[in-house]
Amino acid sequence: MWRRVPPLCITAWGRVTNARAYTEESKPRGCMIVLSATNCSKANAPVREHVASVRREGIDDLTRRLCQGVRDGDVPPGVDAAGVASFYGAVIQGMSVQARDGASRADLERVAAYAMAAWDAVVGDTMCPGSADLGTC
Length: 137
Fold this sequence. Notes:
Blueprint: H1 8-22, H2 32-35, H3 45-72, H4 81-100, H5 105-117, H6 119-123
């Protein structure tokens, strides 16, 4: 039976690592990959696509980690790993935007805590209805 807690690496990823990195006093706030090249002219489309591919790689990495969690018993079998990764990726990317706009580390840690509190609702005991072909492990 799987444990009804998020894998530790996912919890730490959002709550500690990104909240701290996004609000480091000596660096620009947020994440350059999340914030850069989101709205470009046609001439800069290759730059926009490159940065978007890097963002997608992050979601793909999280999808693979969730599948590892299924194998390890941390995540229920049949989970829509790609959908869960997209959800938490959106949270992390949103935290970057909020950091750029002045959110404090405590603000971002609170966002991450709420996202982790949603774990059971997002992951559930089985995959989401209608998601059988969307990225199960």
